[in-house]
Amino acid sequence: MKEKIFIEGGKRLSGSIPISGAKNSCLTLMPASLLSEGALTLNNVPNLSDVDTMKELLESLGCVVCHQKINKTLHLKQSDEPLLLADYEIVKKMRASILVLGPLLARFGQAVVALPGGCAIGARPVNLHLMALEALGASFSIENGYVKGNVAKTLKGSKINFPFESVGATANTIMAAVLAKGTSELVNVAREPEIVDLCKCLKSMGCKIEGEGERTIIIEGVDNLKEATHNVVMDRIELGTFLIAGAISNSDLELTGGNITMLENFVNKLYEVGIEVCQSESNIRVRRIDSASINCTNVLTEPFPGFPTDLQAQMMALLSLADGVSSIEEQIFENRFMHVPELIRMGANIEISGRKATISGVDRLRGAQVKATDLRASVSLVLAALAAEGQTEIDKIHHIDRGYEDIIKKLADCGAQIKRY
Ligand code: UD1
Questions:
Q1: Which of 86, 226, 227, 249 would be a feasible disulfide site paired with 113, CB 3.0-4.6 Å?
Q2: pTM for the full predicted model
Q3: What SS3 state is found at 360?
Q4: 371 pairs with which residues across the strands?
Q5: At what angle do helices 264-272 and 236-248 cross, to 10 degrees?
Q6: Which residues contact 257 (CB under 8 A, 6 or more apart)?
Q7: Atom 20 (ligand 1): residue with closest C-alpha?
Q8: Ligand 1: which of 175, 263, 312, 332 to mutate, judged by most atoms within 8 Å of the beta carbon?
Q9: Tens of pLDDT along 203-238?
Q10: Which percentage of the chain shows pLDDT scores above 90?
Q11: Dihedral of the alpha carbons of 219, 98, 119, 402, in degrees to the nearest 10
């Protein structure tokens, strides 16, 4: 299906947008079901193609997965006789597939998982995942593009120092350590809210974990896990994206179901450029402080609680229209500026030097034919198009279906002239 998104820019938006459950949390929580003899039920699951891909992968491993899309509920139950091969045909669609490695090794002592390979935003190796699982007692060989993992008897608790924070490696290691014999001390772990959400879910399954959200996590291994139900945390990246939608289109938008405490650094940056975000008990409101202008600023992407790399492209769209010169330095991924040539097609003035982009604000963006290159890059084009004069046509929009539930409807319900066909 070669659909495109068409946006007629320059319309002010008004209304309310509901924030969905977090894609990145779901992709971590779903493999956690492999750890347990009992079923895992997840609520607040977004309807996204990445969730479908993880479902397909888990089913290929023998898991029975029932996704009730209307209720946003996912019911997962791993079979006692699993298949232990994560095939390249599925893994290549989504890097988060590597998250089945830790749970399979912990519960079944064996796993063969295709190496995910590089992707549009960088090489993204899995060396930290393997290093940490080896420290817990797994051994690996790499054969024909597959990681073959084996555990001699059982995983054993260990102290693991991560050289730098990795969300995926932290999640994989936590999921392995919960069934290891003894205590694990994981140092310099990722502190993202999605890691905290994983630990919350694992605790409800019977795991013993302390320190989630901090630099060191302590895990006391248990013998087996039990049935549980968990509500997926809200998607802070979707929330940040819609905050920029309100800001860039100079609108007064209301967002429901979100929480800005998980986006403090980002919200402070928005304030610096002249965007006010107010949280009340029932909603979040976003609007420009001075409706005529956006200020320039300098952004550095960092692990949580710093400015999220997953909001870098969206922020760049906003800064394209700022008064003065801004800069964005991408410190997490080495090749995450694929949206820049497309924003330039829309009239933005951006120069790249290594990992730094210099953005000289322009008075207006103009609609153009552009193509999506990855998930967050594609949504940055949607945001730019909301503010641009005339029509923008976005190609290769399957990227956007990976991570933004009902984005066309959510924006159209607030008055955006946006269609997909
Ligand atoms: C997760 C998120 C992704 C987000 C990223 C950073 C999911 C499903 N995806 O990706 O949306 O952009 O965190 O916040 O949650 N690295 C290594 N070796 C490793 C692992 C990582 O060198 O073994 C490097 C990566 O190439 C990258 C950096 O570490 O440069 C951070 O990556 P990581 O935090 O692991 O990102 P993901 O878990 O892949």
A1: 86
A2: 0.97
A3: strand
A4: 395
A5: 10
A6: 18, 19, 20, 234
A7: 126
A8: 332
A9: 999 999 999 999 999 999 999 999 999 999 999 999
A10: 94
A11: -90
Query: Average pLDDT of the chain?
Result: 96
Ligand 1 centre distance from Cα of residue 203 (Å): 24
Q: How far is the CA of 200 from the centre of ligand 1 (A)?
A: 21
Q: Which residues line ligand 1 (CB under 6 A)?
A: 24, 27, 95-96, 122, 124-129, 166-169, 190, 194, 309-310, 332-333
Q: What is the pLDDT of residue 2?
A: 84
Query: Ligand 1 center to residue 167 CA distance, Å?
Result: 6
Kindly write down the DSSP assignment for every residue of 23-59, as one continuous string.
HHHHHHHHHHGGG-SS-EEEES----HHHHHHHHHHH
Report how far Cα 350 is from the mean position of its chain's Cα atoms. Answer: 25
- Kindly tell me if the per-residue pLDDT of 118 is higher than 70: no
Atom of ligand 1 nearest to the CA of 333: 30
d(CA 256, CA 44): 14
Helix (H), strand (E) at residue 279: strand 275-279
